[in-house]
């Protein structure tokens, strides 16, 4: 008698490792980076400080932060070869295809792409974080037929990113919002892209390969792309007054309202709660298209929370509110995936470095349910 095998589809409920990087409490709607509440980090910190925290396991002092920020700035510049890849691919390829290929090229400039020394891999992570932002901004420029803008070392990470993307130095409010967006997407435990990066690194591939694996997993619409899908749904609604009718029709047809529900959170996503405050501030104070999207987002959130929040545990997630805010910052929906990747590289790298401390090659089992002992017939008898 064959023993019954329990299949954990999607590895649901399976623990793959111990980690001290982040804690997602889905039942209570809480998120921590290295023990710090996401609300405190979003309000009081900067992306550079959060990157240091995630990579080194502690908040930096002033000297450490200055040194770290300067290292990030030094690593922003791209090689001519990487720029050529961006120019060649950006007008016809998916943004993540371009980003993956450009990221692969970065390893060619590293004389020692793989190292078992943790300190060296942390510095490679800093390089990856800095260059991913520059690559992402360059992709956005080339897609619109505009010249690539080199980084400005007088600007912090978020402000410099918006400058390289839009050609204008943002005011402090927009720079803070971009900073918050980077912080909220920096890390989220072992989701699909992080797990993909861990599988790659478990073979002892280099850290660049692991990040490329994460970017590949991010391309799928069940992981990355949700914020783009949500904002396109809002664009399809068109006018704030159409919101309830649209939702009624979608729910009646048993289809999904994009940006609601989460694999882990059974309560209000804390990142979404933070972003809702920014939507409230922008409501009526942005450009006409953004104002409509913001109003539609807020209307949808109210209707869905009233109907399905407490009763069904379906709450807005971070992707739902991200789209209108990105557009307020001058970022088109087609770039949302590379913004996510620009934010998340620090999380991927930190998990890779942590996993290598006690590396074990991932080799799960599968239950075979096909035929056995079939008779092979020569091709002229088939």
UniProtKB/TrEMBL annotation:
Gene Ontology terms, cellular component aspect? cytosol
- Extract the signal peptide range: none
Is Transferase found in the keyword set?
Answer: yes
Mind listing the UniProt keywords for this protein, alphabetically?
Transferase, Tricarboxylic acid cycle
Per its UniProt entry, what is the enzyme's top EC class, as one word?
transferase
- InterPro entries per the UniProt record, alphabetical: 2-MeCitrate/Citrate_synth_II, Citrate_synth-like_lrg_a-sub, Citrate_synth-like_sm_a-sub, Citrate_synthase, Citrate_synthase_AS, Citrate_synthase_bac-typ, Citrate_synthase_sf
One GO BP annotation is: tricarboxylic acid cycle
Gene Ontology molecular function terms on file: citrate synthase activity
Q: What pathway is it annotated to?
A: Carbohydrate metabolism; tricarboxylic acid cycle
- Pfam families, alphabetically? Citrate_synt
Q: Which reaction does it catalyse?
A: oxaloacetate + acetyl-CoA + H2O = citrate + CoA + H(+)
Which residues act catalytically here? Answer: 262, 319
| The enzyme's E.C. designation | 2.3.3.16
Q: Which family does it belong to?
A: Belongs to the citrate synthase family.
Q: What is this protein called?
A: Citrate synthase
- Organism annotation: Candidatus Parvarchaeum acidophilus ARMAN-5
